[in-house]
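Q: I'm building a small set of examples for a reading group on sequence design. Run inverse folding on the following structure and report the sequence directly after it, with nothing in between.
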């Protein structure tokens, strides 16, 4: 099964134990999807990571990493923590810069993965501090006219976001080198 990501031994996404409780289940699913994205980008050159899907789309694995760094930052730093900081890899004038600006350079790859890992770490720290009984608490979504989301819905949304984009990543990786993934 050399065309699969996990070719021998146990799946690296397996934490070894079944999560107990609602929060632990959400956290585990999100952890698995984040790890899946990293696996799908593993061992590729900057050129391969920046390879676009089909014209006119600017979708690429590197663009997905940049996009998900921004998604993590928006939902956890801006919405959950209430921080007023600009979303990475995007400007008001260019909302698709996360994908359009995914250049096949080592510096672009390093910046994207460093930022994604940093945003994931900040999100994980915030979620770790949230008691399970608070999953129903509402958070105001910035820039959406007072719209709110519960912590539970935020976590489920993040799982959905990663699930969709990991599906994109499956197809992108298969087109690059034929590897398909679990």
């Amino acid at each position: 099964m050399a065309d699969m990501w996990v070719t021998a031994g146990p799946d690296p996404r397996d934490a070894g134990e079944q999560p107990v409780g609602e929060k632990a289940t959400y956290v585990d699913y999100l952890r698995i999807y984040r790890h899946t994205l990293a696996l799908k980008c593993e061992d590729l050159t900057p050129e391969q990571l920046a390879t676009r899907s089909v014209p006119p789309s600017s979708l690429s694995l590197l663009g997905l990493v940049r996009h998900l760094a921004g998604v993590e930052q928006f939902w956890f730093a801006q919405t959950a923590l209430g921080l007023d900081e600009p979303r990475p890899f995007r400007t008001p004038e260019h909302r698709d810069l996360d994908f359009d600006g995914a250049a096949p350079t080592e510096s672009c790859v390093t910046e994207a993965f460093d930022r994604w890992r940093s945003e994931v770490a900040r999100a994980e720290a915030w979620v770790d501090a949230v008691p399970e009984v608070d999953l129903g608490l509402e958070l105001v979504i910035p820039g959406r006219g007072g719209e709110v989301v519960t912590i539970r819905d935020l976590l489920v949304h993040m799982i959905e976001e990663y699930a969709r984009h990991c599906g994109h990543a499956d197809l992108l990786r298969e087109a690059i080198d034929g590897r398909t993934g679990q």
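The beta strands are 138-140, 148-150.
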